[in-house]
Amino acid sequence: MSLGANKAALMGAAGSSGGPSIQYLVVAGGGGAGGDRGGGGGAGGYRSSVEGEATGGGGTLESGFEFSVGVAHTVTVGAGGAGGPNTTTQGTNGVNSVFATITSAGGGGSGAGSQPMAGIVGGSGGGAAGACGAGCISPGAAGTTDQGFGGGDNDTGTSHQSGGGGGASEAGGDGVSTGSQVGVSGDGGDGIASSVTNSSVFRGGGGGGGNHTGGGTYGTAGAGGAGGGAAGSITLTTGLSGTVNTGGGGGGGTNSGAPFAGGAGGSGVVILKVLTADYSGTSTGSPTITTVGDYKILVYNASGSYTG
Q1: Of 126, 134, 212, 308, which has the fewest beta carbons less than 10 angstroms from its beta carbon?
Q2: Is this structure's pTM higher than 0.85?
Q3: How far apart are CA 275 and CA 256, in angstroms?
Q4: Strand boundaries in the chain, DSSP class E
């Protein structure tokens, strides 16, 4: 059967809703982290229809996207959010990633140590900062349903321990005090492993919470979640950034060395899985294109389009 005839047959089988189906993985940009004992940035939202794999937030795997032959479908790869530059600025949310009608929400920015301290809602939620004083609780933010989990809270003791950012497969950890001005900040939540490119890669990890150096005594910063989440800081002047094209959250900043800034989130990615028999060969944005079994795999690390 010719390529055109094969497409026509599949379109008829699909009915009036469109044509053949594309499987997709759409990961948004990760959230930036706040400074001065800032929480970890939340991972970018994670939406997947790749058969046999998981989607974000513990949700049900999504249906493939039925495309129309000859129509160009937009691909937008979201940038990571900026880290908070000082003690009084939250990290900013990551930018949404989009394929056609499928939108993943940018990861939530995290709280900053000298207000505002709460995390911000996003694809996965940002963690709370850890400097509001003994007995003070600031919350991590919620993630988006079926895209990611919430960020962790700060501690309830001497409150220098921040929460980790939420990840695609689990929530960020809470900060825990272990003594006067010391303790362990929350780890970022882990992301999800996908083998759509024929090798297992984690994406959508939350950033770890930054910590405090009180009287020369060091606490412990949170680890970054698997999937590009950056670790929190304890001695660096600027927090670590999430890994590019994973949607990983930025690592929370510390109070050791000005400007106490948090790390930026990592950019997102869009991956399409198209039956070779249905593959048009027409795209923009220079995706990396490989063949895996009966499928063409298009990996977009920057924005572009795919024409069905």
Answers
A1: 134
A2: yes
A3: 53
A4: 21-27, 46-48, 65-66, 72-76, 97-99, 102-104, 176-179, 182-184, 192-194, 201-203, 213-214, 217-218, 269-275, 282-284, 288-292, 295-300, 304-307
